[in-house]
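Sample intake sheet
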Amino acid sequence: MLGTRGSELARAQTRLVENELRAHWAGVTFETSAIKTRGDERKGEDTIVDLRGGRKGLFTSEIERSLLARKIDIAVHSAKDLPSELAPGTQIAAVLPRASVDDLLVAPARHDLHSLPVAGIIATGSVRRKHQVHWKRPDLEIVDLHGNVPTRLRKLATDQWHGIILARAGLERLGLKSNGRHFRFEQREFFAEVLPREIFLPAGGQGVIAMQIRSDDDHARMLVESINDFDTRLCLRAEREFLRLLHGDCNQPVGVLATLNGALIKIQAQVFDLGATAPRRAEIEGPSEDAEGLAGQLLVKINAK
């Protein structure tokens, strides 16, 4: 039994996992259970409340409880929603190949970050994205944006905003590919511009679908390891280790991205301090087999800024 949130995006991501599992295990029956989380009940995907893991626990704690209670066997998550400390007795056992890590500016007219009108209005619920926008366009008004992807697009269609910021991976997994930098949704046309990664460094785990299991469940481990993407999992481990050491879940503005180049891994990070406009930035590169050690070295490097 697979478990996930009930949003359209969560279901779409779980179908990707289920299809891969079915292709590898034709004789096994897979079913999905949609679990309502506190974040879904609040209707606010970027609410910052949680005793254990910042906002992120709002979208994972109920699923983790179902996993530990053996109501489900495999929890499917957007990796960026997972707190850096998982529930005891659980682990990330596999991931699918990473999708795009980019953020998109989605707007009713064609704009990039620099061409937005002076004092224009941008909507986002992400603390990280708010700081990144303010860093380069302090004149813009930034308003809160909550709800799932379709809800956010409907709000953009009706509110007097100049744009919203969304993850490219989420749009594409819902079938909203911005071919030619525009797409249609419910009879409305929207324009999508990729935001520069040197400014909008993504959240740790962005674009990654993670499968969490009970640590003692060897059967579930065998199933999901057959579809694991080793390179993506290695990069995710590096990003999550940096966040764990920083204690930087979603209520702290942090961007971190690990990329592989042959036998080398490069990790880049941004950390916005309270009251600071520009982030502290650093990067490190070294042997991929030392990914988690490099994450620790990167933290030392960025703390020296």
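Comment: The CA atoms of residues 101 and 138 lie 24 Å apart. The two ends are 47 Å apart (CA to CA).
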